[in-house]
Fold this protein.
Amino acid sequence: MDRRVFLGSLAGLIAAPRATDAQQADKVWRVGLAVANPAIRDALVAGLQELGYQEGRNIAIDWRQGSAGETRSIEDLVRLKPDCLVLPGQLRWELGRTLTSTIPIITIDLESDPVASGFVASFARPGGNVAVLWDERQGDAQLRAAQGAAKTTGTSLVPIAIRADADLDKAVSRAMRSRPQALLVLSGPVIYVHRTRIVESAIRNRLLSASVQPELAEAGGLLGYGPNLAELFRQAARYVDRVVKGARPADLPIERPSRFQLLVNLKTAKALGLTIPPALLQRADQVIE
């Protein structure tokens, strides 16, 4: 059988009616989740509870804590044949797409532009078996945006790439060779997992640090501005609900974050001998003292 016809047939099965309402009431939906942070799992579960789901009664979460680059955890989840997969981050959902064309995939992509990358057709109708919650400022798009902003303000940027844990200890040292005044931290799996190490290194080198991830300020960075990660996973629960009720992921529009948080860490500011303008403190959603 032609592979394209075969996959098309399977995609049609995803869109087929699930069952009668009575059968759905007795159904325990299975969700495969790959994420390292337990707090993120809790956020997804909380979002599902708000929609009437309860673990052990009508939904089961098959959770694997593998890192973003690990293949084994996602392979394991695919073998379980859940009703949908929640695979946050580009590395995970790209792998998921190679392993299954029949299980709907829901992702929160913080690193890439899925349309420009060719993984989905458009924001309104992505196609395929991927539903995406995506922040366009992430990944390469973040760097291009930062470079554009720097050009308009006359600021010089020195990109320092971090691709693996081994790069962390050398990254700030490389940055210091250019005598920077600040460290702008973009996002990615390695950066998120090791954010505390990064900000501690920045403080040792007397660098103020800012990030598109609010969690950086919670870890000791000076400023964090961006979408709340836990809130995005609560939002992802609505996609799970729609998919298990029979919605075709190909027809679900890509959503972007609607709420952003500004966190200011006064403790770090004092350690660096900085005074935060009162106007900025008034705009902050949270001031860490």
About this structure: The first helix runs from residue 3 to 15. The chain has two domains: 3-135+228-259, 139-227+261-288. The chain has a mean pLDDT of 78.
